[in-house]
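Revision sheet: structure tokens.
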Amino acid sequence: MPKYRKQDTVMKSHIGNKDSNKKFVLGQRGISTIDIIIIIVASIVIIVSGIFLYTNFKTLKQVNADIAEMKLIIAEKQDTLNKLIELGQSEDALKENYEKNKLYVPEFKDVVGIVSDVTGIVEDEGGDFRNITYNTEVQMENGVTDIPFKIRIESTYEQLNSIVDELGRTNRLYVIDSVTIIETSGSNSILNTEIEMHAYYKMP
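Predicted:
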């Protein structure tokens, strides 16, 4: 019967342990604790970066959509205002508008009255009156003198609509040629607007 030496038993045990350790080794180096930590950190960074990029893309898309919507609103408002303020340019249209709305053509120029009317309406509707510029007066064939002028105001869309409407309710005839939005402020939707207008008077 063969005898086993203690040294043989120890060697076999050592060899067994080495085989057992090899089960946890991948490749020649294996995966250490530091490698696992690096992999986890890298995965977290990749996930966070992906979320950040997706959020930025979504925000940029929304900003572009808001800008496009603002441009569309401005275009629609400009078109609506142009339709609201279309008044006749000819003498016949002027007479028809006078009879229809019972507007008043005074017998003197009264520039102070014009400024008072315009500034009062703008400020009453919540807008800011900036300036008024007069152009050369035009003598019409029926004895009526045309006083063309421009005003600059700042207001919201709603205030601008109200101002245009109120200018047609005064006891003096005002004809609006055009309403031009010069620029807008996106933060609070304030419009810088130029309105070309006419006032009239008839010498006795």
